[in-house]
Design a protein that fits this description.
Blueprint: H1 2-9, H2 14-30, E1 35-39, E2 42-47, E3 50-57, E4 61-65, H3 68-73, H4 75-80, E5 84-85, E6 90-93, H5 100-113
Antiparallel strand pairs: 1-2, 2-3, 3-4, 4-6, 5-6
């Protein structure tokens, strides 16, 4: 996870830093074929050059960005997990558990849905 080290070290709160490192580490361990990338100052995972999932942090939450199509597809499950979301991001508050099954489902959805995608973002 060398790619993300600088990003992680810039997180002020030690518990938040540990949580973000845990989440990024889980993705890397579960999906080792995904490439790690920092873009727009945020950690992202890509597959054959196409965006799969990105993260950012704020004072109140981790933001997960799987693209709008995935959020629309998993909207009910996102709400059932107790997360707020917009059209583009899912907010996991620092005091909430990470629903790794949901996170994995979104990653797998994007990998399959974008298998033939030749651009970074969906068109």
């Amino acid at each position: 996870m060398e790619t993300f080290e600088e990003f992680i070290q810039q997180i002020d709160h030690p518990d938040h830093r540990d949580r973000m490192e845990e989440v990024l580490g889980w993705v890397k361990e579960k999906y080792p074929q995904l490439e790690e990338k920092i873009a727009w100052k945020q950690p992202m995972f890509t597959d054959h050059g196409t965006f799969i999932l990105g993260f950012s942090v704020s004072k109140k939450h981790i933001a997960v960005a799987p693209e709008r199509v995935a959020i629309d597809h998993f909207s009910d499950q996102i709400k059932q997990a107790g997360y707020d979301h917009t059209k583009e991001i899912i907010r996991i508050k620092w005091n909430q558990q990470v629903d790794y099954a949901l996170l994995g489902n979104m990653i797998e959805f994007n990998i399959k849905d974008k298998a033939d995608c030749s651009t970074f973002w969906r068109k």
